Amino acid sequence: MSATPASAAAPAAITDDVDLSALNSFGLPARAAHLVRLRSIDQLRELVAAPGWADTPRLVLGGGSNLIFTGDRPGFVLKVELGGRRLLGEDAAGWLIEAGAGENWHEFVRWTLAQGWPGLENLSLIPGTVGAAPIQNIGAYGLEMADRFDSLDAVDLATGALRVFRREACGFGYRDSVFKRAPGRWLIAAVRFRLPRAWQPRTGYADVAAELAARGIAAPSALDVSDAVIAIRRRKLPDPARIGNAGSFFKNPVVARAAFERLAALHPGVPHYPQADGSVKLAAGWLIERAGWKGRDLGPVGSFERQALVLVNRGGATGADVRRIADAIRADVAAHFGVELEPEPVFV
Question: What residue ranges in the chain does DSSP mark as E strands?
């Protein structure tokens, strides 16, 4: 089944004055003036061609796991529901796989593993959709989406034109891309991945290695790695279906080597990960915990008791509540360590 159907489709379903609280994983209150459920490119092109489109505010919404709503949304909220997943081809190097942007990311990962196509297992159980993965360049346990990325199709929301983006054009960085830097410009329709036949497990992270060892697995398969990652994430992270959250709330900060050495002199044992360019990545969760925030609440939002990096909705929180605790944590970490934290989710 194609992930980017080109045939004519029924007009997009548009609903007015829609509650968005169930469409964002933090469970924050917000209303959309108009919610559009997009299931084909043709539906989107009809909207773009309609009178007044150019002057109408618009927000692209996938799984809602990386957005913090701070108020109601005027104009259109475009809920991406483009489906489909398929094998496009294979050769001696591996497999080329395509998925529609509206596909659930974790279900897509597990589907690839069930087909015998390894490579995405370290990214198991990350919430959200396939289309959101390149925007954030999602990553976990030693793997980034960009490591397996081939190309994607995106629609220019100003013109309706479909463009193919290769890796170089995406500007991938740490939890970053050209799409994240230009919100409202592009709607990702389908994403393609190259999965390697000459696969080797990535088990360098201590948690993954320990989980596999506890299971008595010395030579893990891709499915073994996925199962281990799922178990770790379920132990450490809250389920958004039970308690509202947006996953890891802050990026792990990257600092210059000299800044790290000054920090390490004051705080021996600070977790750190040297980067290829000489900079050093720090563990944001460690900084937040040492600043006294793990398990601590500020109003209806708190730092999760099992993982300080995750902020959770204790009940009845608003976007303003999330911003208030995020700002307080950032200020305390800066005061304690001289390190600036940057949120991963986007405030809208």
Answer: 13-19, 31-38, 58-61, 67-68, 73-80, 85-90, 94-100, 139-140, 143-144, 149-156, 162-166, 186-196, 244-248, 254-255, 272-274, 280-282, 297-298, 301-303, 310-313, 346-347
Q: How far is Cα 305 from Cα 285, in angstroms, rounded to an integer?
A: 11
Rounded CA gap, 8 and 4, in Å? 12
Q: Residues 6 or more apart from 237 whose CB is under 8 A from it?
A: 245, 247, 304, 306, 307, 310
- Cα–Cα distance for residue pair 157/47, rounded to 1 Å: 9
Sequence-distant (≥ 6) Cβ neighbours of residue 269 within 8 angstroms:
none
Position 204: which residue type?
G
The catalytic site residues sit at 175, 248, 344
Is 343 strand, coil or helix? strand
Q: What is the pLDDT of residues 285-339, one digit of tens each?
A: 999 999 999 999 999 999 999 999 999 999 999 999 999 999 999 999 999 999 9
Q: What is the value of pTM for the model shown?
A: 0.90
Alpha carbons 341 and 285: distance in angstroms, whole number? 10
Candidates 8, 101, 13, 16; CA nearest to 61 is 101
